[in-house]
Sequence to fold (192 residues):
Amino acid sequence: MSREQALRGGALAILPTDTVYGIGCAAADRDACTRLYASKSRAAGQPTAVVLGSVDGLEAALPELDRPAAARCRRVLPGAVTLILPNPARRFAHLCGTTPERIGVRVPVLTPEVAALADAVGGVALTSANLRGERPPARLAEVPDELRRLCTVEIDGGELGGTPSSVIDVTGAEPAVLRRGPDADSLVALLR
Fold:
């Protein structure tokens, strides 16, 4: 079975990004997302970003993205940033917490293999592959065994930066940094 088939079948995966290792699943698979949340003891109301392998993949997953939002995405993606965008069609509402009109998206700088996989499944719900309160892993070996045992797919991307992405909300009049990560200030300048 290919990695794509495994994710389409509901498997969980450990995947490298450009910042830290994540645990995730096909974003459209609600049952897999429920298992993902349970694996991390994540509250159902906590949003989880949808990761795509390319900006084209992002625009395919959110076809109603308006021109200003799409232009902002193209200015900073791919990169170490999670953008909170308007979500007028309420896509992936099960990953949006209490605000289905907004969605977190990420297009990291990925290996071609991981990028193709994320786009092929229409997006991956991905959160850091650590236990609550622990540091996000920069190496596959740092991912806790209890999470690795739950996953059918693992991709080793070597040692990563280890600092989670910046999270920037672009749904208001001005970009708002919700979590500082790499290059947060320069990203905000590009998003204005």
